Each structure stands twice: as structure tokens, then as C-alpha cells.
Amino acid sequence: PSMARGAAVEFDPISWDDIGGLEGVKCKLKQAVEWPLRHADAFQRLRLKPPCGVLLHGPPGCSKTTLVRAAATASGATFISLSGAQLYSMYVGEGEALLRETFRRARLTSPSILFFDELDSLVGKRVEGEQTGESTARILSSFLTEMDGLELAQGVLVMGATNRPHALDAALVRPGRFDVVLYVPPPDKEGRLQALQIHTRSIPLAPEVDLRAIAAATERYTGAELAAVCREAAMTALREDAASAAEVRQAHFEAALAGIKPQLAPADL
Ligand code: ATP
Fold first, then answer.
1. According to the model, what pLDDT value does residue 139 have?
2. Which residue's alpha carbon is nearest to atom 24 within ligand 1?
3. pTM of the model
4. What is the ipTM of this complex?
5. Best mutation site among 26, 29, 54, 62 for ligand 1, i.e. most ligand atoms within 8 A of its Cβ?
6. CA dihedral (225, 228, 234, 238) positive or negative
7. Which residues of 136-154 are buried (b: 16+ CB within 10 A; e: fewer)?
8. What are phi and psi of 161, to 5 degrees?
9. Pocket test for ligand 1, best of 14, 16, 63 (most atoms within 8 A of CB)
10. Backbone φ/ψ region at 21: left (φ over 0), alpha (ψ -120 to 50), beta
11. Dihedrals φ, ψ of 8, to 5°?
């Protein structure tokens, strides 16, 4: 019964082209995720050891989760995801049972990707005053046991995402665990332009709209914030003239930008 509340197998296909910029990260993910799952026999022939775990870290809203979904789509693997918060909302002992059951399911449905969002809240370091240290320690130790057990099983890749890599227990990045660690930065100017193009794909734009200028003026905006800007620009057009607005103009984007400010500080870059 706890399975129903916990891990979800979902498949919402995402293409690499739905994510702007981040060429370097995408390339490394293809090698670490797509190749071992798609070319398992070649890896075996060449005695190449595929990675056991891939950890993505970086500020919120910069597409860590979306990258994992794109990697799952491209590799054709079963996608199973579990968030740290889900495990802790359970009674003592239930969280570990769910964790074991989720790993078991990943082995049964391999090739599979087992994704842990908010990994820090699942297996964070013990923080004074937060949670009961005991359940944190027990969940971390079950997690490590399960991950080490995977070495024998083929075709299960564990992926994790976190905004707070320093909050993770050091045991997680030992060899055989999260052996590929990738930083997902906020988008640069070219990445922002691509993100704006992606999020205006289905919005009718007036010919004067200059996405390149908007990309140049949105330093420190995350992909999620740029998506919000595009939505807000269209809403502004609608508010202005709900009866007949048929396109979104540059002025609507400017109004949206005035209302949506980047949450990242210069020091976060
Ligand atoms: P969090 O840490 O808050 O979970 P995250 O890094 O996992 O954030 P996502 O949830 O993948 O970020 O991204 C949020 C939304 O922002 C996505 O649904 C997507 O629409 C948009 N987005 C983020 N980065 C980009 C990008 N580079 N190109 C296009 N869209 C992006």
C-alpha cells in the first residue's frame, strides 16, 4: 500500500531540444546515461564500467529535473522517481521499506533510471535540531546499502538532484555511488535566447519582438524565470485587450520583465 503513495513511474517525454543551452552538461549526460543504457553490450565487450550514479547540482529552476527526464526519454529506460520529502512524510520504518521496494522495482524493470529529487532532504548530513537524527541515519544507511547492491545488477542507473550539494553526506560520492557529478549552471546569454525561443514556440509574437535583446537583458534569470516571463508577457497582452489581442509585443515582455526579477544574487553565479 505504501507504494501507491510513494514512487511513481511516469513518462512525460522530453527532448534534449526542450532545454536551452547547457551543451556541455547535455553531452556529459548522453555519455553517462544514454550510451550505457542503449549500448550495454558494447560497454561489456570493451570492459567499460558504466557509472553507478549521476548527481546534478545547481541553483533551483535551472532544469536539473528536466535534464533527467530528457536523459530517460533518450535512453528508453523505465523512469522511476522518488523525492526526499516523500520518504520523510512517512512513519518510522516505512520510509526504508519504500526505499527498498523502489530499488527492487528498478532492478525488475531494468534498464531503468531511478531518480531522487531533493537528494539532500533524503540523505543529508545530520543537522542539529532538524529531524530526529536516527531516522536520517537509518535512511542514509539503507540508501547506501541499496546503491552498493546495484553493482551486481545490470542496467539500473541512480540519478539525484540537489540545490545544496554541501548538505550531502560525503559517503555518497565514493566510487561506485554517485561517480559522475555535474554542475547545472544558470543559462548564459545564448542559453537564455534558446530558453526564450522554447517557451514562445506556441505564442504568436509581433514581428518587432526581439528575443535576442531580452536574452541580453536577463542576466541571472533562470530558465524557470524566463518561462514565467513568457507566460506573463502573454497574460499582459490578454489583460490589455482580452477582446481582440492576437499577438504579444515587445512592450508586453518589457512589462513582464519589470515584474519578474531574478532570485539569484550575483554571488550565486
Ligand atoms: P528545482 O531545483 O527547483 O527542482 P530544477 O533545476 O530541477 O529546479 P526544473 O524543474 O527542471 O528545474 O525546471 C523548471 C522549469 O523551468 C522547467 O519546466 C522548464 O520549463 C524551465 N527551464 C529551466 N531551465 C530551462 C532551460 N535551460 N531551457 C528551457 N526551459 C527551462
1. 85
2. 223
3. 0.90
4. 0.96
5. 62
6. negative
7. bebbbebbbebbeebeeee
8. -135, 145
9. 63
10. left
11. -120, 135
